[in-house]
Amino acid sequence: SYVLTQPPSVSVAPGQTARITCGGNNIGSKSVHWYQQKPGQAPVLVVYDDSDRPSGIPERFSGSNSGNTATLTISRVEGGDEADYYCQVWDSSSDLVVFGGGTKLTVL
Amino acid sequence: EVQLVESGGGLVQPGGSLRLSCVASGFTFSSSEMNWVRQAPGKGLEWVSYISNTGFTIYYADSVKGRFTISRDSAKNSLFLQMNSLRAEDSAVYYCARGKGSSSDYWGQGTLVTVSS
Questions:
Q1: Largest CA distance in chain B
Q2: In this predicted structure, what is the pLDDT of residue A108?
Q3: Which residues sit opposite B47 in a β-bridge?
Q4: According to the model, what pLDDT value does residue A15 have?
Q5: Which of A18, A35, A63, A101 could hold A51 in an S-S bridge, CB 3.0 to 4.6 Å?
Q6: Given B46, B105, B107, which is nearest A99 (Cβ)?
Q7: How far apart are CA A46 and CA A88, in angstroms?
């Protein structure tokens, strides 16, 4: 089955740029989606189809996808961005939705 | 405003059954694909099942195939998950989520299922 690999944690100082990666075999050929989840809350879609943002999501959130790695980039990081972030794809070869293991973003 | 409200969770013994419900409002439910996603305590997200807007296309995670059944009633704007032969590892918060392409753009607040004797 298809596997998505994320780093368990990423730390960044306020105002800096955070980059969270999501690795998968030829992931560049798939559409990647990213979710933010704060403690005790439901996930929120922050980027879909590699690089599109839902309405209401700040422009500071952006995404890219090429080769074997997709990346969620959060610019000018704020304390409120501290959360778990998950990548997700649809694996058409097996008709399964796949989530990455999640990355905890810590704002120093 | 899009709203998804899950219910039906609770404590059940191993081998038992539960039926989860999700009532949708604020959008055209009959036109929307839907998913169930779960999250065990302290763990990551795990997709459980998908159903197309018509109900004709259904997919399951391998971990629940043969034990769980997803269904919908568009007349009642409701999504269901019938869970049989429950195991301890099925303990989780279960979320219903609206499909947007291959993503999920709106999520409910979840309902907690605990499988324990």
A1: 40
A2: 94
A3: B37
A4: 97
A5: A63
A6: B46
A7: 12
